[in-house]
Amino acid sequence: MQNQFTTKNQSVDKAFSIIEYMSSMRMPLKLLEIAKGTGFPASTVSRLLTSLTDRGYVYQNKETLKYSLTLKFCRIGDSAKSGLNIAEVVHPYLIDISNKLGETAYFAIEQDMMLVYMDAVGGSNISNAGIQRIGKIAPLHCAGIGKLMLLNYDYKKLKKFIETKGLERFTPNTLCTEEDLRDELNKVKKEGYAVDDQECDEGIRCVAVPVRDYTGGIAGGISVSGPADRITPESYDDYLNVLFPVSKKISERLGFE
After folding, report:
1. pLDDT of residue 2 exceeding 50
2. How many structural domains is the chain composed of?
3. How far apart are CA 236 and CA 89, in angstroms?
4. Which range (44-48, 112-116, 127-131) has the least confidence?
5. Where is the HTH iclR-type domain (predicted)?
6. Is the pLDDT of residue 4 over 50?
7. For residue 31, with 0-12 CB atoms within 10 Å meaning exposed, 13-18 middle and 19 or more buried, which class applies?
8. CATH (domain of 206)
9. Residue 66: closest CA among 105, 30, 23, 15
């Protein structure tokens, strides 16, 4: 009985390996191409492809004999997506971040060229005033997570964003020119994280990292925020050492590889 279960589990694992390989190639493939790419015997691949074809997940062109995935996977993806509340996924991780760092941890996304705070967990070092940000909006160009969301913008869309929303000054540190903002975004893209260096509120710094989803794009971001005398440039690594592993776990939950 144990051998039967083991064999079935191996078959399921191989079937998913075939599906993932076909998805990564993004083109119809012949049986031997799939066998070579996965490293499985052609007989095994043929058997599993037949099962997947019978179930409607794979289609074989009778003329070219090539196999491709069907849109049935989209239906499953839509079902999974509709049942996923990202804020609920993120919340336990925010608690963990806040407990470890003692500062308020945030999760925010972009909507209509603005940053929307979806969740926050207050830290032990401060009051729960940060929780009042949930549901509130902030400008993208000066918030840490906002800068991360702007990485999704191409040149023209960023230009339109600046023309539409403007680059309002909130503090002496706010980036208020297109050149300064583009330079900052290049730095953020290179380093993989963003900082709000007292750009939204004087005396407050924020360190933010991206959360990616199955598309590879930035779906949102997580951050910690606190007084500038506690969150200093010299301490950024201490925060990032907590934030990066958490963002990786959340991104994996959202289908990012």
Report:
1. no
2. 2
3. 25
4. 127-131
5. 9-71
6. no
7. middle
8. 3.30.450.40
9. 30
